[in-house]
Amino acid sequence: MGTTVTPLRLTIIGAGYLGLTHAVCMADLGHEVLALDVDEQKITRAGAGETPFFEPGLEPLLRKNLDAGRLRFTTSFAEAGEFGEVHFLCVGTPQADGGAADLSYLNAAAGALAPYLATPCLIVGKSTVPVGTARALLDQIRTAAPAGTGVGLAWNPEFLREGYAIQDSLAPDRFVFGVTADAAAGLLRRIYAKPLAAGIPALVMDLETAELVKVSANAFLATKISFINVMAEACEAAGADVVQLAEALGHDERIGPRFLKPGLGFGGGCLPKDIRAFRATAADLGVTSLASLLGTVDTINFGRRTRVTTMTREAVGGSLAGKRIAVLGAAFKPNSDDVRDSPSLDVCGRLSAEGAVVSVHDPVAMPNAARSRPDLRYAASVSEAAEGADLVLHLTEWADYQAIDPAALATVVARRAIIDARCTLDASQWRAAGWSVRVLGRP
Ligand SMILES: NC(=O)c1ccc[n+]([C@@H]2O[C@H](COP(=O)([O-])OP(=O)(O)OC[C@H]3O[C@@H](n4cnc5c(N)ncnc54)[C@H](O)[C@@H]3O)[C@@H](O)[C@H]2O)c1
After folding, report:
1. pLDDT tens digits for 86-135?
2. CA of 18 to the centre of ligand 1 (A)
3. Which of 62, 117, 121, 154 has a CA that sits 20 to 30 A from residue 85's CA?
4. Which CATH architecture has domain 9-205?
5. Distance (Å) from CA 106 to ligand 1 centroid
6. Contact, 222 vs 266, CB < 8 A?
7. Which atom of ligand 1 is nearest to the CA of 159?
8. Rounded CA separation 243/235 (Å)
9. CATH topology classification for 216-443
10. Ligand 1 mean position, distance from CA 153 (Å)
11. Can you tell me the distance from the alpha carbon of 113 to that of 102, in angstroms, rounded to the nearest whole number?
12. CB 21 within 8 A of CB 166
């Protein structure tokens, strides 16, 4: 028997990666949704059924809900204030100078919305924030809202992964509801009635704990990645094989195989900035051991980029000047066109700065990569990127690259040499086709 959803009027403030996905998913649950962004172009495109980023399945779901009349877009805070029974804050919280989170977008959004909150409502924060932000925001909103309006605030952090955004929004491992009153938890239960009925747990807690759950989840995942990457260094030093090591560790149920993939490390718009912001918070709170742990995780992660740059230099004879390097992958991870803090583009930039001619291919991220690093060359196909290359670098583990025929690619390169910085290619197949193959952390 299906769950009956009593539709609520929801506004989503900030229609970027998180906000647009959330708006579409909430409309798909049956709610009436009005999404707002200050970027007019984004709003126009979304209203026309276009997503401004690559996310499997999101565009058809956006169109379906636009057609059903459950989803609209606006740039007007007055319209949003009047419309919403619940307002979700989904704006960006990027890294400020010094590593702490920049909360200016969040403060601006709350400040712009508050004067229009004429009827009782709940504000729900979804952005990733330092602990203490929610309570400060509630004070700010209550001061700026019309006198007498009952405004509540909850924090419902988002755990979605780019590439799996719909699945993660509608069927996450758990919902986290940070609240100050039972009524807020009740409203959140109504919003998420369908997934909750399907058995997804909702954990209700105070605001501070909810804020910390999100950043500590990211800190744990980043630590797991950096752990296996120092193990890769240990394997290289000892002549051992980190891929076999990771597989054996992953079979231990206490450890598990996920986020235990050795390679070039993490990047993207979330993990790096979130662990730096958490590090800054930990220092502010006087929790120096946490600040030091997170600093080490970040340093290990950056070290992987240096290591690949060094290996590349060595593999072409000690100097990169004039050497042609073909790079496979520009996105920070596969199934995404996001190049924010992309480890691949960082390495490309380092190689280019030493005089290498870098030709990059990516199945979907090239337009974003070209905007972010216009100094690099971009190739429409793997073989075009590899034309005349002295070395091929595998930097983002798209499934397409595992299907490359090494014998065919051998016919276009100047030298059959490849470095697999993501440890996912079948090295024996490449070697059989005459390639010299180096894999991070493997003999
Ligand atoms: N992208 C992810 O995978 C992900 C996952 C979980 C959590 N988060 C968190 O979600 C938040 C948003 O991240 P994102 O990736 O969606 O960022 P984003 O940059 O894609 O989107 C942010 C949006 O907010 C809009 N905005 C900025 N100021 C505004 C204002 N005053 N009023 C209305 N809109 C405004 C921007 O125009 C932009 O469209 C961050 O805190 C991030 O850490 C992101």
Report:
1. 999 999 999 999 999 999 999 999 999 999 999 999 999 999 999 999 99
2. 6
3. 62
4. 3-Layer(aba) Sandwich (3.40)
5. 9
6. yes
7. 6
8. 9
9. Rossmann fold (3.40.50)
10. 19
11. 19
12. yes
Structure tokens at 228: 């296996």
Nearest CA to ligand 1 atom 32: 109
CATH topology of 9-205 equal to that of 216-443?
yes
Residues 320, 354: Cα–Cα separation, whole Å: 6
Annotated domain spans of the chain? 9-205, 216-443
pLDDT, tens only, 392-407: 999 999 999 999 999 9
Check pocket membership of 39 for ligand 1, CB cut-off 6 A.
yes
Assess whether the C-beta atom of 19 lies below 6 angstroms from ligand 1.
Answer: yes
Give the strand pairing for 32-36 and 357-361.
Answer: unpaired
pTM higher than 0.85, yes or no? yes
